[in-house]
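Deliverable D2.4 — example input (structure tokens):
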């Protein structure tokens, strides 16, 4: 994650955690040593699962980047091979012309056949070594060197990409094992009410600490802005008679933009505005890798167009107006899981990831994060998805289900809408997006972090 992304995410996390978990603690009546130990073990297992998920999706971003670069290198190789072939053919054609049309000073009536051929051959090589032919030979040799270097580069990139793919598979297996371990720990320890209270207390303490760290990380930016503002000189006095008045500059935030998202493949995020019930919007193109699993999860679905721009590192609006306050939504994965901040991660086709990915076992229930209308569909890469128009005015997108629960309908908060899966990808996980006011997507990680 870049420094810019980290600071933007920190600012968003402060706002979300502040609204979700005010600075208050659970009563110490439930602080028995055994319960506290069990709660600590559960929280540690969750942290390990999240760390494993982050490692998986970081490796997936690396793999996607290497794959993109390999594809470009292969296209460049084809162009270089074509250029070399053209130079070679041109030199061959010139040699043939010289051979066929060449004449010698000797009278052919007094020259034997072998000598005539030798003279013609010498003329061809002489022409190829002089003036324009010399330049063409030099170009051809340079092109051959470039071709050899390009082939060596392809070989190195292919090996690196394959190594990254193997590493991703290893990390995915490790993450799935951590989720299974978390499930076992929670099944053994989380049934007791006293443990639940202790876990709630420890969770609040952890989020308080994260809020403090995020605030400390954001403070240098605030100080820098203040310093820059103080260094700007006052504008000169304006001539009262002048028609040009100086006003403060204004920044207009676009209400929509073009971008790409992921729910198992690549593609445009499609349409997210409009009233629920309309599904005429683009579902987006979704070929691609898992990770962002992703492909256009794209928030496509309702009529109208308001897809998000989603450049890497943009997380402005993470606490923006229109999105349900973090205390008003629930965790979308109703079971053991691990998740990571993959917002802005590179994806094939020049896309960036515009959601949060949550690893969980196939079949784990996926629930509506707030009340509203849910509509089901399937996008072009085969991913089963749900489009959710929340009562708060926020639009949500869920992807990669193994199966739906019911049909299009109005749902209550926490109601099961589907089951986790790997449709449209090879990594079992939920791809989840948040679009405030049914517009451009924002980074959902701070919201998920606050409630999951």
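Example output (designed residues):
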């Amino acid at each position: 994650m870049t420094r810019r992304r980290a600071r933007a995410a920190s600012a968003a996390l402060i706002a979300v955690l502040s609204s979700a978990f005010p600075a208050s603690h659970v009563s110490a009546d439930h602080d028995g040593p055994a319960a506290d130990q069990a709660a600590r073990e559960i929280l540690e297992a969750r942290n390990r699962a999240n760390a494993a998920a982050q490692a998986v999706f970081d490796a997936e971003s690396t793999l996607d980047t290497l794959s993109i670069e390999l594809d470009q290198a292969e296209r460049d190789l084809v162009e270089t091979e074509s250029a070399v072939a053209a130079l070679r053919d041109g030199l061959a054609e010139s040699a043939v012309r010289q051979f066929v049309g060449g004449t010698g000073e000797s009278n052919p009536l007094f020259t034997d056949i072998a000598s005539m051929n030798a003279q013609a051959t010498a003329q061809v090589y002489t022409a190829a070594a002089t003036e324009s032919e010399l330049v063409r030979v030099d170009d051809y040799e340079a092109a051959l060197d470039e071709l050899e270097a390009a082939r060596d580069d392809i070989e190195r990139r292919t090996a690196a990409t394959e190594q990254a793919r193997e590493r991703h598979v290893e990390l995915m297996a490790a993450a799935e094992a951590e989720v299974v371990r978390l499930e076992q720990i929670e099944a053994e320890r989380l049934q007791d009410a006293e443990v639940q209270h202790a876990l709630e207390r420890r969770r609040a303490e952890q989020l308080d600490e994260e809020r403090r760290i995020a605030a400390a990380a954001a403070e240098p930016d605030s100080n820098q802005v203040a310093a820059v503002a103080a260094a700007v000189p006052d504008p000169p006095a304006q001539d009262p008679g002048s028609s040009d008045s100086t006003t403060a500059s204004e920044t207009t935030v676009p209400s929509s933009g073009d971008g790409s998202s992921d729910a198992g493949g690549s593609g445009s995020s499609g349409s997210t505005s409009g009233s629920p019930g309309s599904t005429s919007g683009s579902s987006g193109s979704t070929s691609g890798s898992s990770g962002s699993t992703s492909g256009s999860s794209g928030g496509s679905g309702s009529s109208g167009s308001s897809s998000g721009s989603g450049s890497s590192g943009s997380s402005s609006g993470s606490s923006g107006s229109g999105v349900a306050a973090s205390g008003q939504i629930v965790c979308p994965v109703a079971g053991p899981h691990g998740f990571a901040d993959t917002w802005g991660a590179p994806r094939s086709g020049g896309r960036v990831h515009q959601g949060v990915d949550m690893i969980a076992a196939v079949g784990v229930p996926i629930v509506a994060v707030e009340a509203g209308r849910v509509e089901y569909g399937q996008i072009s890469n085969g991913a089963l998805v749900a489009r959710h128009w929340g009562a708060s005015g926020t639009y949500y997108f869920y992807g990669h289900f193994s199966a739906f629960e019911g049909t299009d309908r109005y749902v209550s908060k926490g109601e099961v809408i589907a089951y986790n899966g790997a449709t449209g990808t090879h990594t079992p996980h939920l791809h989840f997006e948040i679009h405030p006011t049914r517009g451009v997507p924002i980074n959902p990680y701070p919201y998920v972090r606050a409630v999951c």
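Confidence is low (pLDDT under 50) at residues 1-30, 231-261, 264-275, 277-321.
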